[in-house]
Structures are given as structure tokens and as C-alpha cells.
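Sequence, please.
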């Protein structure tokens, strides 16, 4: 296995790897047709086995604090994409990608990584094992049935009939909301502070 910088010609393989990696997760319908580009500098890594992209990691990072990340002081990097092809899981690929990214990030003067994920237990276990701390969460709420739509959405256009909707719930009654809608995911913010950082990090919740 080889880890290297992403190249433009990797895009098709990058997309395929991400789609397959997400199919059995809470992000199964979060499909991209092309790779994201970033306004700020980014660490973009891929893992290669036999000329196939089997893992990927994209981290957009700050040049000025709190322009991308929100949960700490110092300069942060936001993990926008991390994925491993399902045929290559449990081989330590994600951990190796993260380790390489941490080395690069600290050379660039970053102090921590921030990441958001949903409530897949095995994904959250991975973040915990990698030294990330859970610092915040809210709910992703999908309105997918006619009953959910009718009792939630009130519009001023009588001939416009919503079929689906997506919302953020940032209140305290999370369990109540989970009882009201069929598809609800907890969206969890993780933070990993680099242990050899010279800047003391204090979460700002």
C-alpha cells in the first residue's frame, strides 16, 4: 500500500471509493458526482493498492483561526472526507492516512483536527480509538413520509407539495425528536488536539 498526494487524474477513482465506502453507513445517500474543491489550502491524500484508490482523506485547513473550524483555539483542519473501500477495511488504512495527515498538519503549524460524523457505532469507535474527543452534537432530521411533512411544514403556496425535507435540530429534546421522525441521525463533532502542540487548547462550546 502507498499513501501519496491526490492528483487531478485520481478523481474517478476517488469518487468510486467514496461512494462504495459510504453505502453501508448513515451517509448512504450523500453521493458526490465530482470531487470537492476548497477555498482554503487542503491536505488531500489517497491510499493506493495495485493502482486502485482504496482510501482517501481530505482536510481543509485554516490560515486564520475559526475560519473553517469552530470548536477550539489555534489553527485547525477540518476533515471533510475520510473513506476506505469496503473490500480493504480492517487493514489500518484510515489510521495510516490520518497519521500521515497529522505529520503534514503539524509541519504547517496546525494545532488540531475537527471532524463531524453521524451515529454509526463503528465509525465513532474509530474516532475514539484515534484519540478524538466528542465535543458537541445535534440532530439531522429527515422528513420522508406524508404524515411527517404535513404535521411539520406549513407553506404559503397551496399548490406546492413538499415530498421530502432535511433539517437540523439544535435543541435539547433529542430523544423526543427521535420518537417523532423515522430517520434521525445524531451528528457528532470530534476534535483531536496534537499532543506536541505548543499552544494550549481550550474547547469553546
Amino acid at each position: 500500500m502507498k499513501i501519496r498526494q491526490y492528483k487531478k487524474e485520481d478523481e474517478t477513482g476517488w469518487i468510486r471509493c467514496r461512494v462504495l465506502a459510504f453505502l453501508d453507513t448513515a451517509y448512504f445517500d450523500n453521493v458526490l458526482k465530482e470531487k470537492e474543491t476548497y477555498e482554503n489550502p487542503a491536505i488531500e491524500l489517497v491510499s493506493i493498492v495495485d493502482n486502485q484508490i482504496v482510501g482517501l482523506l481530505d482536510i481543509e485547513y485554516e490560515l486564520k483561526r475559526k475560519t473553517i473550524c469552530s470548536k477550539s483555539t489555534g489553527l485547525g483542519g477540518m476533515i471533510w472526507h475520510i473513506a476506505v473501500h469496503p473490500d480493504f477495511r480492517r487493514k489500518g488504512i484510515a489510521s495510516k492516512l490520518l497519521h500521515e495527515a497529522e505529520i503534514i498538519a503539524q509541519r504547517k503549524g496546525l494545532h488540531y483536527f475537527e471532524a463531524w460524523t453521524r451515529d454509526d457505532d463503528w465509525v465513532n469507535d474509530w474516532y475514539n480509538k484515534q484519540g478524538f474527543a466528542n465535543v458537541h452534537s445535534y440532530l439531522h432530521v429527515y422528513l420522508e413520509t406524508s404524515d411527517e411533512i404535513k404535521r411539520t411544514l406549513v407553506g404559503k403556496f397551496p399548490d406546492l407539495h413538499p415530498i421530502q425535507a432535511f433539517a437540523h435540530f439544535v435543541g435539547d429534546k433529542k430523544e423526543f425528536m427521535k420518537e417523532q421522525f423515522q430517520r434521525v441521525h445524531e451528528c457528532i463533532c470530534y476534535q483531536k488536539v496534537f499532543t506536541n502542540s505548543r499552544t494550549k487548547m481550550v474547547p469553546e462550546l
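The chain has a mean pLDDT of 94.
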